[in-house]
Amino acid sequence: MRIGGRSRSRFSSSPPRFADARPRRRSSHERRPASPLPRVAARGRPKVRFCRRCSASRAAVPGSPAPPRGPREGRVPLASLRGPHGVVAGMAGWAPPQLEDFILTERLGSGTYATVFKAYRKKDVREVVAIKCVSKKSLNKASVENLLTEIEILKTIRHPHIVELKDFQWNKDYIYLIMEFCAGGDLSRFIHARRILPEKVARIFLQQLACALKFLHDKNISHLDLKPQNILLSSLDKPHLKLADFGFAQHMSPRDEKHVLRGSPLYMAPEMVCSRQYDARVDLWSVGVILYEAVFGRPPFASKSFTELEEKIRSNQPIELPSRPRLSLECRDLLQRLLKRDPQQRLSFQEFFAHPFVDMEHMPGLESLGKASSLVTEAIKKDQEGDAAAALSLYSRALEYFVPALRYEVDVRRKEAIRSKVSEYISRAEQLKALVASNNKALLQQGCPARDILKEMSRDKPRLYAALEVASAAVAKEEEGKDDSETLDLYQQSLGELLLMLAAEPAGRRRELLHAEIQTLMGRAEYLKEQIKMKESQWEAEAIGKEGMLDSVRSSCTLQ
């Protein structure tokens, strides 16, 4: 059984009735006292149930009525029916309203209290927009507050990764939100059409989402309903994420706490359900769920029934990451830290924005090319001075900026000129790499006697000796020319143990040798890390074609 709400047939002769509209008869919640969810929570804790008909969240605290809820509060969306602009398509509808200066055409979808139409402005340049038509008759107190908050927030912000509210109008029947049109649908459709996204694609989208969230965070705005259905794509040939649907958004400082349940259960942070007390960090949980769904194909709480869903939300078990597909250590680390059930253990916004997988420093932007050019100038200078290692490091760092510069550039000729220059720099970097590798091999061989002495002195400490054995295996792999992630993992494993041993080691000759060995291994690990990044940047720079930002993964993620 798929979790989601119901919709009437589009051929129904009567207009649709939504759970949050004011019905003439008693509401479905009142008519159906039994909840499909058993009370699995411990006695005395706040509980949540979900309506059998509309999937809306309902309070289940004994002796207390259900709290008022917003227009879409707590529902589990019908992802298969959801269209662009955060609304559900395929529901019964009506003819487009008449709005001066606009021609309303196809319906993009319908939500609880609004219908969204594609429209054209009646001008010489027929601008395409999306118009959300909100029926005044369907609004209750909570939905009015949500709508006013959405308008208030959207009319004051402008960001390349947030859907733009161009204008809003009203008449006696409707309130009209005239918004930017996003032709690529939503992220949920994009993911499900491909089953899973390659990590590189998910990372690009995550960077764009993080950029929008940082903009909002700096203004103390929390979205509170982050999910793939509320993230739109500007197009399919060159997709850029656009965060939409600010109906639940709130002005919240980092210390503010809220108690009203809002959002969609599959993407809600557990504290919203279990304690009804939460802060802005719930958005970080939702980001983790979105990233999890992008790389694994389904959200971590995907369930066959509402009972199973509530049990997963209330469970104290940590979120486990599937072993396949294989992800980078950085991606796994971010997922594990975002999906901490305890918000006090969850990483902070500052830690999220600074995380190496998010890597906002290398996000495509106007300044990317300038930073790359500056580093190349330094690399050429070091190269001329004969400092091959420094020059190689600078070329590698420059490539990390050239890749986003290529993604950012839209002019075909300029992009081709940049790619031509990048090819020259890559060629020189390869020559320097061979020279540096030869020097490194000699240095590694010079360090062997000291490492052997340290191992002999460590036979009385099995844990220290085992860590040195792992380090020796890493050095052997590097000497064989295997400068890959597997070799780097060995270096990092040994360093993790050796640093712990160093902290407990008393002063003496063994401590001196151990300290020197750690310094050597850290240098090797940093060098390998740079080489791996350079390989990735080189591959991406060569793969970025003229057709769009995702050409680098077209073989595994074809845009349709």
UniProtKB/TrEMBL annotation:
Bilayer-spanning residue ranges: none
GO molecular function annotations of the record: ATP binding; protein serine/threonine kinase activity
Reaction equations catalysed: L-seryl-[protein] + ATP = O-phospho-L-seryl-[protein] + ADP + H(+); L-threonyl-[protein] + ATP = O-phospho-L-threonyl-[protein] + ADP + H(+)
Protein name as catalogued: Serine/threonine-protein kinase ULK3
Gene Ontology biological process terms, A to Z: autophagosome assembly; autophagy of mitochondrion; piecemeal microautophagy of the nucleus; regulation of autophagy; response to starvation; reticulophagy
CDD domains referenced in this protein's UniProt entry, alphabetically: STKc_ULK3
Cross-referenced InterPro entries: Atg1-like, Kinase-like_dom_sf, MIT_dom, MIT_dom_sf, Prot_kinase_dom, Protein_kinase_ATP_BS, Ser/Thr_kinase_AS
Species annotation: Podarcis lilfordi (Lilford's wall lizard)
Subcellular location: Cytoplasm
